[in-house]
Amino acid sequence: MASSSSGATPNAPSARALFALGFRPFYLLAAFLAVVGVAVWMARYAGWQLAEGVVAGIAWHSHEMVFGVGVAVVSGFLFTAGRNWTGLPTPTGAYLAALAGLWVAGRVLLVTGPHALAAVVDVAFLVAVAIALWIPFHRARNRNRFFVGLLLVLAGLNASFHLAYAGLIDWSPLAPIRAGLFMIVLIVTIMGGRVIPMFTTNGVRGARVRQYAKLDRVAIAAAALAFVALVAAPGHVVTGVLCLVAAGLHGARLFLWDPWSTRRTPIVWILHLSYAWIPVGLFMHGLAGLGVNVPGVLADHALAVGAVGGVVMGMITRTARGHTGLPLQVGRWEVAAYVLVHAAAAIRVFVPLAMPDGYVAVVVVSGTLWCLAFAAYLRVFVPILSRPRADGRVG
């Protein structure tokens, strides 16, 4: 490739390329935190004496997986999809870099403190993302404006976490984090219903995908009710029934998308397999509500590691490939990442049911597989996302 007049190749890594569209910095930042955050938590859980930040222990780990990793991926996806949905620009360049910097500052301040400043910066990021999306959505009168409301609810839950952690409100700090996790799962049910059937139809020859709008609406509403009940009355029999109903509806929804047809297409089966963890997690919560000895923490990890972690891995590979002009066919490193993240979920969720005495080993093994999965993603996509598209198009 010929050199440019500045001495750099046209496809060389650059800050301009990194901040060309929202998915680029936020997918990489999310994957990096997924590796580092879980590695640090795993080491502490195994007994290593590592220094704690101003937010410590399980609160830090849970918060960073939901309001760090999860929120970063949602932000990057919405900035990228929002441009397609509205035909209007979303943050790029210095504006996007400033938003990414605000996210990074929140992560750093949660370690260094002071906590008051960390809380303000952390919550401000979600508010800033909501405002940045509202502008194009409102101008285009786009039907996806409700995502702005969901982001503001996440901001409110994040603020509640910080207030609870500081002892300013009488609420367990873990409760708003769980609510934030459920909100992200709800976003997955909404977006999954839009993209998974479409990706299956477009990417798998002969797939017999069926969708029923009424079933979609009822399934999403049932999940929302179940999640509200899990926050308000965990372990109650009514909560258990709501979770079982929602599990059945989402299982039926997935069945209609013809998941078996995707078995030879990894870039599609990763989304189906990940979505399957939603009815699994809801079913486990349902059993717990009916008095079966199923720890809620395992059901939460079915949703967090299996559903959210798996969908995140599937979406950050597919959309990164699609928006950088690459073929929608994954290589061995990406397939390895898919297998590793689901192996991590299966070990974290199911092994403790059979081997409750080996819980520390389960956390270490599952966490290691999770870290390897996202490290594999970074190996493939750091060079891709830090370079401009070879065809010169925006993306």
Multimerization status: single chain
Number of helical stretches of at least 4 residues = 13
The end-to-end span amounts to 21 Å
Task: Estimate what percentage of residues fall within beta strands.
Answer: under 5%
Q: Indicate the low-confidence ranges by residue numbers.
A: 1-8
Structural class: mainly alpha
Overall average residue pLDDT: 94
Helical fraction: over 70%
Q: What would you report as the Rg, rounded to the nearest angstrom?
A: 20 Å
Compressed to H and E, one letter per element, the order equals: HHHHHHHHHHHHH
Count of extended strands = 0
Sheet having the most strands: none
User: Which geometry do the CA atoms define?
Assistant: globular
What does this structure look like?
The chain is an all-alpha fold and 395 residues long. It folds into 2 domains: 14-171; 181-383, no CATH class. It contains 13 helices and no strands. The protein is globular, with a radius of gyration of 20 Å. The protein starts with 14 loop residues before the first helix and ends in a 10-residue tail after the last helix.
Jot down its keywords.
395 residues, mainly alpha, 2 domains, disordered N terminus
